[in-house]
Each structure stands twice: as structure tokens, then as C-alpha cells.
């Protein structure tokens, strides 16, 4: 017996150039079903909710939205077809997007009663009335993970200034339904006195996805934390997650403070240009006009020598090199003492002081 699974309507797809998974809409088969869902064929290429944004379409502030352009699927059924030309999709099937991404099957939505999902099926059989078992319309959580604030990639760590997000993909959940996410500290630290967990309720979108932006509050203890998506509550059922995120919340620190004086260093860059000799020019006159010595003038032009310096001719081109002021660099030198009238600066080096005020007495 083949271990492959058929892909069904609503299967979860993943694009290696997309931001998030998306569901496949079966439109080319309205005859053959498995477990109450139409089987997908190699002609099914519609992804209404899209993969979010496309990493192949960069812009200044991130990436442009995904516009799926799925091509015909490969690695499909060889003998079994729908009609003469349409072949059925398996969990190993894949396709290319016209933009360049590779799209694969993340979840077929077919329950394998003979495989690893047997225990899950038994659990469902205890919770759901018999007539519903054939419909496979059980609200469920397919996957969950942490994302960065821009929703551009999965993350495993974040800092105090960031706003990480929790991404949850559901199945058989109507748009507008709510789910509750419980977050705990792995080391059992309180978020504030007596508060052991965070509980947030969010709404599921039309694509089955729900996204929570986690606000890291200032009244949290400012210590290093390992946060965990502990549980997801959906339709009276509890899904364990245990997705860990390391949040670094360091105390603001003053590393050093001292008096200093400013030292200004001028920065120059070399400039090269060709000068055309005119009537009455001598190397001495040209050097004086360019504010350089004759020796420097001769050194800068490989064709000039002490032997021919007096033989320059009208329209002869001489290479001139000079330094142009590019800017100034200010550095602060620590002071142990200063005189009356000196201009003195107070230098304070800090860490984790973003968005905080510093008062100096």
C-alpha cells in the first residue's frame, strides 16, 4: 500500500519565497471526494489568500504583496486521472510560481487512518458525534510559530524594543471566530506580581490565519526571558504548542561618564586634474598658483622631471594633484582637569537606554 496522501481542498501550501502558508482552492474537480473534500488535481492553481508577501519583490520598506502564479503541478498520480488529462496531487507534489518561488504541500488535510494520525483520529472520535466524523470539519490548529514585526520571517529570539508576533494557522474555522493564546515564561518568572501567564484573544481571518502582535510591556521585570506559546484554545479544545522565543530584556546601564574636550581632525581627499599650459607659464608660476612646491608639482606628474621642467610648452597638459577638505571628525579626549574658559563636554556611555531620559545633576 502506498504511503502517499492525496491532497484535498483547503490543503496548506508553502512557498519558499512567501511569508506565510496559504490554502489551495480546488476548482477543477467537482466529482471525486475523500473524507468529504474534493481531491486536488494538477490543474488546481488557485490560492485566494496568497502567501502574504513575496521575497523576490523587494522594496525599501520590505517586500511587495504576493500575487500567486502557480504553474501545472509535477510529481502527481501516473495512472489514476480525472477525465483524460487531470492527474491527482500527492503530498510530494510541487509546482513553480511564475515569479520564481517553489510551492510545496505542507498539509494535505487528508487524515491517514493507517498512519501517524491514528491516535489523533481516536481522540476526535471521542469528542465528536458519530455523524460528523465523515465530514472532517473539526476546527483545528495546523501550526503556530513566532514571526518578526514585519511578518517577513520566522524568529526564535527578539529584543526589548521589538514587537514579535504569533502566527497561528487554523482549519475548518470560520472567519471572525476567535482563538485564545496563552504565553508563559519558561523559567516561571512573573510578568508582573502574581501574573504567571499572558492570555490574548485574537480573530481568525478569511484565510484561516490569526496573528497576535505581542506588546512587551514596560512594567515587566527587565530581565532575560524565554517566552513560550504554551496553549491555544479553539472551539472548546486545547492545543499544546511549546514554541519558545528568547526575549532579551536587559536593565538600562550607565557604562561610563567623564569630562572631555573636543578634538577636531580635518579629513582630506586627493583630487586629480589636468592643467593646460598657457603662454607665459613656468613650473614655478604654476606651483605658486596651486600653492605647492616645484618638487611636489614634478613628483605628481610622471612626465615632468628636473631635467625638462624648463621646457614646458603651450597646450602641454600637466597632472595636478591636491587635497580637498572632505569634512571634520570630532573625537572626545578624557580630561582630568580643565582651566577657566575651556570648553568642556560631559560624555555618558549607556546601554539599553533607548527612549529613556537621562538626568545629570
Mean pLDDT comes to: 82
Task: Give the oligomer, counting copies of the same chain as homo and different chains as hetero.
Answer: single chain
Q: What's the β-strand tally? A: 21
Distance between the termini: 80 Å
Helix and strand composition category:
mainly beta
Number of contiguous helices:
3
Low-confidence stretches: 113-135
Proportion of strand residues? 35-45%
Radius of gyration (Å): 35 Å
Major sheet summary line: 5 strands, mixed
**Elements, N to C (H/E):** EEEEEEEEEEHEEEEEEEEEHHEE
Q: Going across the major beta sheet, what is the strand order?
A: 12-18-17-14-15
Helix content: under 10%
Shape: flat
Please describe the structure with a list of short key phrases separated by commas or semicolons.
40% strand; four-stranded antiparallel beta sheet; 3 helices; 361 residues; mainly beta; flat; 7% helix; five-stranded mixed beta sheet
Describe this structure in words.
Strand 5 (53-59) and strand 6 (62-65) form a beta hairpin. Helix 2 (283-289) packs across helix 3 (294-300). The strands form 7 sheets. The protein has a 5-stranded mixed beta sheet, with no helix packed on it. Strands 2-1-10-9 form a 4-stranded antiparallel beta sheet, with no helix packed on it. A 3-stranded antiparallel beta sheet has the order 11-13-16, with no helix packed on it. It is mostly beta strands and 361 residues long. The protein is 7% helix and 40% strand. The longest helix is centred in the middle third of the chain and has 10 residues, at 118-127. The N and C termini lie far apart (80 Å).
Amino acid at each position: 500500500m502506498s504511503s502517499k496522501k492525496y491532497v484535498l481542498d483547503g490543503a496548506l501550501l508553502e512557498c519558499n519565497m512567501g511569508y506565510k502558508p496559504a490554502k489551495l482552492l480546488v476548482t477543477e474537480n467537482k466529482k471525486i471526494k475523500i473524507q468529504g473534500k474534493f481531491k486536488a488535481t494538477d490543474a488546481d492553481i488557485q490560492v485566494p489568500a496568497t502567501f502574504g508577501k513575496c521575497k523576490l519583490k523587494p522594496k525599501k520598506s520590505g517586500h511587495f504583496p504576493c500575487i500567486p502564479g502557480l504553474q501545472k503541478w509535477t510529481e502527481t498520480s501516473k495512472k489514476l486521472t480525472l477525465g483524460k488529462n487531470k492527474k491527482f496531487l500527492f503530498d510530494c507534489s510541487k509546482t513553480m510560481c511564475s515569479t520564481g518561488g517553489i510551492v510545496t504541500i505542507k498539509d494535505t488535510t487528508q487524515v491517514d487512518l493507517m498512519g501517524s494520525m491514528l491516535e489523533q483520529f481516536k481522540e476526535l472520535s471521542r469528542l465528536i458525534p458519530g455523524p460528523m466524523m465523515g465530514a472532517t470539519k473539526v476546527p483545528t490548529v495546523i501550526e503556530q510559530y513566532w514571526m518578526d514585526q514585519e511578518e517577513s520571517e520566522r524568529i526564535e529570539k527578539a529584543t526589548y524594543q521589538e514587537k514579535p508576533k504569533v502566527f497561528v494557522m487554523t482549519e475548518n474555522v470560520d472567519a471572525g471566530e476567535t482563538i485564545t493564546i496563552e504565553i508563559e515564561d519558561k523559567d516561571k518568572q512573573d510578568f508582573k506580581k502574581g501574573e504567571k501567564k499572558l492570555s490574548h484573544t485574537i480573530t481568525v481571518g478569511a484565510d484561516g490565519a490569526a496573528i497576535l502582535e505581542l506588546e512587551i510591556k514596560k512594567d515587566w521585570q527587565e530581565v532575560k526571558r524565554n517566552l513560550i506559546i504554551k496553549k491555544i484554545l479553539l472551539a472548546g479544545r486545547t492545543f499544546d504548542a511549546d514554541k519558545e522565543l528568547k526575549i532579551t530584556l536587559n536593565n538600562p546601564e550607565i557604562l561610563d561618564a567623564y569630562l572631555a574636550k573636543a578634538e577636531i581632525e580635518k579629513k582630506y581627499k586627493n583630487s586629480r586634474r589636468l592643467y593646460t599650459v598657457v603662454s607665459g607659464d613656468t613650473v614655478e608660476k604654476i606651483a605658486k598658483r596651486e600653492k605647492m612646491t616645484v618638487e611636489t608639482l614634478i613628483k605628481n606628474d610622471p612626465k615632468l622631471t628636473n631635467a625638462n621642467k624648463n621646457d614646458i610648452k603651450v597646450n602641454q597638459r600637466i597632472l595636478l594633484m591636491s587635497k580637498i577638505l572632505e569634512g571634520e571628525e570630532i573625537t572626545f579626549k578624557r580630561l582630568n582637569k580643565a582651566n577657566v574658559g575651556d570648553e568642556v563636554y560631559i560624555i555618558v556611555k549607556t546601554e539599553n537606554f533607548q527612549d529613556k531620559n537621562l538626568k545629570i545633576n
